[in-house]
Amino acid sequence: MAPWLQLLALLALLPGAAPRPVKPRAADSEAWELAPLELLEPARFALEMYNRGRAAGKRAMLGAVRGRVRRAGEGSLYSLEATLEETPCNDPTVCQLPVSKKTLLCSFEILDELGKHILLRRDCGPVDTKVTDNRNWTLNSFLPLLNKDSFPQTLLPFQDFSVKMTSIFKEFVTTYNRTYDSKEETQWRLTVFARNMVRAQKIQALDRGTAQYGVTKFSDLTEEEFHTIYLNPLLREKHSKMHPATSVNDPAPPEWDWRKKGAVTKVKDQGMCGSCWAFSVTGNVEGQWFLKEGTLLSLSEQELLDCDKMDKACLGGLPSSAYMAIKSLGGLETEDDYKYLGHMEACNFSEEKVKVYINDSVDLSQNEQKLAAWLAKKGPISVAINAFGMQFYRHGIARPLRPLCSPWFIDHAVLIVGYGNRSDIPFWAIKNSWGTDWGEEGYYYLHRGSGACGVNTMATSAVVN
Ligand SMILES: *[C@@H]1O[C@H](CO)[C@@H](O)[C@H](O)[C@H]1NC(C)=O
Ligand SMILES: *[C@@H]1O[C@H](CO)[C@@H](O)[C@H](O)[C@H]1NC(C)=O
Ligand SMILES: *[C@@H]1O[C@H](CO)[C@@H](O)[C@H](O)[C@H]1NC(C)=O
Ligand SMILES: *[C@@H]1O[C@H](CO)[C@@H](O)[C@H](O)[C@H]1NC(C)=O
Ligand SMILES: *[C@@H]1O[C@H](CO)[C@@H](O)[C@H](O)[C@H]1NC(C)=O
After folding, report:
1. What is the enclosing helix (H) or strand (E) of 277?
2. What superkingdom heads the lineage (predicted)?
């Protein structure tokens, strides 16, 4: 497919691509919200300029594009920002996975006078994971990049692709001990897996931290399946306000790790159930109890699934209501006494088995420095985050571009157990509840100090007096 047809296909995926009347614009009006159709000509020209003189196999393709225009008299000055994908491979029949693709971020300035285009400026750079990019990207501009529908066009030239993918998929099936009911199911899962590999690659290109994305135990699930089974939409609802915590006055030590101090139980596995909220809360209470009594007890999430009627078991819940439930029930039983099943059962709580109580719960500061100071002094913190990219996270410090990991789309609850720097990149160490065969032995490392993925928006803790 000619690059220019490719562009048309991609633009068709942009929201609002359907023909619509072009709004009359006042002279000198300026906006990033240029309609896809208006972007078509200048974007095609920019790509042509970029590819001029390149061998056929080396031409870049357009990922996402956005732009604004300034009009004066007969002329229009377009400023475009675009992602280009370069394949450093001349011969498509020997190209490996699209793994070798390079994503570039480019800005162009193009003057259009009566249909004649002139390139005034071009600035391209690799999507450098270390560049601190504070520009406001719009989510829309990246949607086509991440859109799975762009998969078939992009990969058809790679004859080798399906062979290679099949072998990686077989490895995945063995590693994670997968069984599928039928040939059709297996074929479908392979398709999903291949799309996910491409998706992970894009997420990788757009991460500004050090995180690696790729094959995980969730690689054969569609995004929708993953969201429905493992994530928690209820976290987007406003949680009931609790008292603000009294802040800690000592400055935060440079690093802290509650795992080394014995305040954290081993990583648990929520299974195919959206019960992250319960794990986040028991993790916090385990820490609070350890700090109060000096003993580490593994506490029961199943008690919360069955007996906390304010929350919705596997369909999600809120830490703030879980604290209230624990208080009104009279405390938590241990994991051993009230074992995790991963689905809701009738409440079988018995007061005699309560091992741990809480007296109150508090909202913590949104300032990450204050959160660090609080954590070091008072224990692990329950937080809620946007789980963008976590389906494919393997290791390293995740720092997705802000519009891709908006603090307004919180869908996962976890536990911060420590923080520090890894070669000068500040991180939060986050205990997840997807088993030890995910992430770094079950842990997720997220950039600290930038409000990454809303990590600072719903920080809470129980209080044990
Ligand atoms: C990003 O957008 C916000 C509000 O939309 C604005 O206040 C801020 O200045 C913008 N930042 C940059 C770097 O453009
Ligand atoms: C793989 O799955 C089968 C059946 O689901 C189970 O019997 C077996 O123990 C599993 N093996 C491993 C290594 O997990
Ligand atoms: C409820 O707990 C009691 C012990 O506390 C146990 O004997 C009983 O089997 C449990 N019931 C169910 C349905 O699990
Ligand atoms: C905290 O709660 C426990 C159990 O409900 C209670 O026995 C204790 O007196 C409470 N402590 C304070 C200081 O209120
Ligand atoms: C961690 O990294 C940040 C940013 O590079 C730096 O400002 C800070 O001083 C570092 N902290 C430590 C303890 O090294």
Report:
1. helix 276-293
2. Eukaryota
Task: Measure the N-to-C terminal CA separation of the chain; round to a whole number of Å.
Answer: 68
Among residues 218, 210, 97, the alpha carbon closest in space to that of 161 is found at: 97
- Residue 465 Cβ < 6 Å to ligand 4: yes
Per-residue pLDDT of 317-344, as tens digits, reads 999 999 999 999 999 999 999 999 999 9
Ligand nearest to the CA of 178: 2
- The minimum-distance atom of ligand 4 relative to the CA of 358 is 2
Ligand nearest to the CA of 462: 4
**Average pLDDT score over residue span 15-19:** 31
User: Are the beta carbons of 217 and 390 closer than 8 angstroms?
Assistant: no
Q: Distance, CA 206 to ligand 2 centroid (Å)?
A: 36
CA dist., res. 354 & res. 299, Å (int): 10
131-138: average pLDDT = 37
Q: Which of 367, 328, 371, 329 is nearest to 348 (CA)?
A: 329
Q: How confident is the model at residue 439 (pLDDT cuts 50, 70, 90)?
A: very high
Q: So where are the chain's domains?
A: 18-135, 137-206, 233-463
Does the CB atom of residue 350 touch ligand 3 within 6 A?
yes
Closest listed ligand to the CA of 300: 3
For residues 98 and 327, give the distance between their C-alpha atoms in angstroms, rounded to a whole number.
Answer: 53
Which residue, judged by its Cα, is nearest atom 13 of ligand 3? 348
Q: Mind telling me the catalytic residues?
A: 276, 412, 432
For the structural domain made of 18-135, what CATH number should be given? Answer: 3.10.450.10
- Report whether pLDDT(110) > 80: yes
Confidence of residue 239 (pLDDT cuts 50, 70, 90): confident
Distance from the CA of 341 to the center of ligand 3, in angstroms? 13
- Ligand 2 atom nearest to 177, measured from its CA: 1
Beta partners for 385? 412
- Which atom of ligand 4 lies nearest, measured to the CA of 330? 5
Of 182, 201, 203, 268, which Cα lies nearest the Cα of 400? 203
Considering only CA atoms, which of 196, 204, 200, 203 is closest in space to residue 169? 196
Residue nearest to atom 8 of ligand 3 (CA): 348
- Assess whether the C-beta atom of 328 lies below 6 angstroms from ligand 4: no
Beta strands in 100-222 (DSSP E): 102-113, 116-126, 212-213
Q: How far is the CA of 174 from the centre of ligand 2 (A)?
A: 10
| 308 within 8 A of 322, measured Cβ to Cβ | yes
- Residue 78 identity: Y
The 8-class DSSP code of residue 123 comes to E
